[in-house]
Amino acid sequence: MATSGKPSCQIWVGGLPESFSKSEIERVFDNFGAISNIMVSKSRTMGANYTPAYAFIEFKQKSAAQSAVRLMDQKRIAGSRIKVEFARTRMVPEHIRTPSPTVARKKIKKVRESSSSSSEENSLSSSSGEDGSDDGDRKKKLKKKKKKYSALIPLLQFHMNAGE
To answer: CA 149 to CA 162: how far, in whole Å?
Structure first.
């Protein structure tokens, strides 16, 4: 039995047949318990590298995920032997997912630029000695943006690596 990641509600299913849809995956795995989310990635070929289709499935209960891993690992589905493990990374909610690695790179660049510009502004305002209430508002806004986007950097980097 493969249990690659830490036992949780989320599993990874690899080696899926190319024709397998989200609804077919749900039909096979909902026997183990209620599913809260499914994320499917179709197979693709890049140069000489072939990546088979895979899916992340999130169950509402950990026991359902454990049963799915125990009973479905190395089973044949539509002629393909699948591998089922606990997910090593958390599933990314649909509203956060980036459409492509290019978009992810642009967002990371934007975050890095905003953090470097805020540090430049901090050094400029501290050397000027002015009270600058306008500067204070601007600093607060930049700090808020930096905090908002800095949490997304690991997610964006994950998507960049997944797309390559």
So the answer is: 20
| Start-end of H helices in 30-132 | 62-72, 101-128
pLDDT in tens, the chain (164 residues): 455 678 889 999 999 988 888 899 999 999 999 999 998 888 777 777 777 788 999 999 999 999 999 999 999 998 889 999 999 866 555 544 544 556 666 777 777 777 666 555 555 555 444 555 567 787 777 777 766 666 666 666 665 565 54
Q: Which of 111, 96, 94 is nearest to 40 (CA)?
A: 94
Q: pTM of the full predicted structure?
A: 0.53
Contact 51, 105 (CB under 8 A): no
